[in-house]
Design goal:
mainly alpha; about 80% helix; globular
């Protein structure tokens, strides 16, 4: 139940990002659910490997290179899926940053609501 709730909240966060960033487009809520699923898979499977491989660069940039990795992965998912479009790298970086902030806020609010009930 909790995993489904987080998945739906991430899809809502993705829809919100698509409404605020002009270079990111989603065709429907179903596409947002699919994109949220694939973003979760990419962040779980590929991101840790990339973070490990780019550790020296990340240390030299004091962690700022993680924004580049997040943007590239966001852009990658947008280029693979049909209903989710990310127009370029910088839109990917901005979209990834906003997506993580909005997703974090929605998840924190949901946890507070679940604790009260």
């Amino acid at each position: 139940m909790r995993l489904l709730l987080i998945w739906i909240l991430n899809a809502l966060a993705l829809l919100t990002v698509a409404n605020f960033v002009p270079g990111i487009r989603l065709d429907s809520f179903t596409d947002a659910m699919i994109a949220a699923f694939f973003l979760g898979l990419v962040n779980t499977l590929i991101r840790p490997l990339l973070l490990l491989l780019t550790l020296p660069v990340t240390l030299l940039t004091l962690g700022l290179f993680i924004f580049v990795i997040n943007g590239l992965l966001f852009w990658f998912v947008g280029s693979v899926l049909k209903g989710f479009v990310v127009d370029g790298f910088w839109f990917g970086v901005l979209g990834a940053a906003l997506y993580s902030i909005i997703s974090w806020g929605l998840s924190a609010a949901a946890q507070q609501l679940l604790r009260k009930s």
